[in-house]
Amino acid sequence: MPDRPSPETKKTIRTFAAASFLNDMGSDIISPIWPLFVTQVLKANMAALGFLDGLGEAFVSLSQAVAGYYSDKIRRRKVFIWTGYLCGAVSRLGYAASSVWQHLIPFRILDRAGKIRSAPRDALVADISTDENRGRHFGLLRAMDNTGATVGILISIALFNVLGYRLLFALAAIPSVIGAALIFRNIKETRTPGRRIFKGLSFKDIDRNLALYIALNGVFALGAFTYSFLMLNAKAAGFKAGFIPVLYLVYSAAAALLSYPFGRLSDRIGRKPVLFMAFAAWAAVCAGAVFGTGPAFAAALFVLFGVHKAALDPVQKTLVAELAPQPFRASVLGGFQMVIGLCAFPASLIAGLLWDKAGRRVPFVLSLVFTAAAALLLLFVKETRRPKAVA
Fold first, then answer.
1. Which of 93, 103, 350, 359 is exposed most, by the fewest CB atoms within 10 A?
2. Can you list the alpha helix ranges (DSSP code H) found in the chain?
3. What pLDDT is recorded for position 385?
């Protein structure tokens, strides 16, 4: 029989799921209109937009590593989580009040620094979960992320002509405030008994197995450019610009529907088989972009992309949490996300340069190479758990 989560564990997971839904709903109210707001309302050029987005990604990587380290150091998770949600809310109010694009810089930093919540939250989820339910817990959180994103996009489309940019940005702050309040009120945290001197994570705490897993995910991230390239590919395949946001909805809906089932599947058959499925789905996306033609084929790639993200995101975190030494779990999770973020940033830059200089298919060919290399390295990673049947 599988382990049954305690009532307190169930409450914690449900609270995190609700907060994830709310925060991503608020975030994706903004996402469809962010580039237009920056370039059309605040009159910034594309270089300024790229600078703002690149700056944001850099702070995501750094904030997660720092938060993970200090969460382990002070043996607290909760404060980083609700504070992170509040950062997102305040940043959206700042966006709404900005009159020139330069004003966005501190709020963009604050927005992305709100990711301090991620590593401590993931560590807390891993701490209260067992091998039999850890995958489904991470899968549920990712499913709620994607569901919230889908709802947020629909709200943005429905209310944009009614509210305009600034009121819509202000509205987007409300869900994150509610999410922070839920965390503050419902999550109970107790400090580990006994005194422990935290010396910090060092390389000797990361064994070869964990190091290999981190490295292969970095290799994969070098080829995993953003969904913007799929959107541009769809436009090149014949889709009108006004319909492309619907394709993003297709991706979000597919990821939302499948994240929890993939998490449960990883509890049943192991993490590595599901990760191979994730790599295979992304390889199919790349191959489809290289060899496929026509709008229908381009649209199908967004479904495959949703399958890829649903299989990758929850299981990727689950396995790194299980491979990490428990006292340094948040530090490892934060460092892992920093490596992924630092590798993902040049991935899109390189893909863009190749697209311009060598043609739109070349970035997808290069990504296939990185994906194959990552899958090969994954063969040599050893899981630390034994898959068990789940009722």
1. 359
2. 7-30, 34-36, 46-74, 78-97, 104-113, 118-128, 134-186, 208-223, 228-236, 244-269, 271-291, 295-323, 329-358, 362-378
3. 55
Residue 133 contacts residue 5 (beta carbons within 8 Å): yes
Residue 262 lies in a domain: yes
Q: Which residues of the chain have pLDDT under 50?
A: 1, 194-195, 197-199, 386-391
Structural domain count, the chain: 1
Distance CA 155, CA 29 (A): 6
| Largest interatomic CA distance in the chain | 64
DSSP string, 349-378: HHHHHHHHHH-TTHHHHHHHHHHHHHHHHH
Read off the CATH number of the domain in which 158 is found: 1.20.1250.20
What's the rounded Cα separation, in Å, for the pair 381 and 365?
A: 25
CA-CA distance, 76 to 66, in Å (whole number)?
A: 13
pLDDT number for residue 46: 59
Residue 53 lies in a domain: yes
CA distances from 306 to 16, 195, 230, 279, 359 (A): 22, 45, 12, 12, 25
Domain span at residue 251 reads 7-188+203-378
Between the alpha carbon of residue 42 and those of residues 34, 60, 88, 168, 319, the distances in Å are 11, 24, 21, 16, 43
Positive or negative CA dihedral for 196, 201, 205, 207? positive
Q: Is residue 16 part of a domain?
A: yes
